[in-house]
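Please describe our next protein:
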Amino acid sequence: MAKTRQQKQESVAKLSEQLSKAKSVVFADYKGLTMKQLSDLRDKLRDVNAEFAITKNTLLERALATTDYQLPPQSEDILNGPTATLFAYDDEISPIKILVKTLKDIALGKVKSGFFGGAALDEGKILQLAALPTKLELRGQIVGVLATPLQGMVSVLQGNLRNLVYALEQIKEKQSAIA
């Protein structure tokens, strides 16, 4: 059943709101994915406070016109064919990683384009973002980098104590040999 003009306007308003709230947005071709695969993907994305919605291209184009997002001039392929949109609200990278990994594992669909911090991204840049470590992994790496010098200092200080104990042992052995 066709949507009424009112329903389309509501859809555009909802898309505009989602676009304005999102920290990163990715457009993907979902052709070939089953409803179960889409549902599983949505569940994974919901866990990281992101949405994956199938969007009508004309309504998406109208919603984009109401935001600050500007599609690049060579974007005629972006809004052609089946399009689903990923809206990442908290962490900008984790939802992109989940989407790219899922599409790669299933070997269906592909990312088309997107926005990150207001800047338009092509497929290659989105794949680069997906290769970045997550915030949690980066924090772990920073802790490791900070802990390494401390571990070295502890080892040096323990070495001095060990040498003092060895020196006292030698003095004790020398004095017991003299006596």
About this structure: The chain has two domains: 5-132, 133-179.
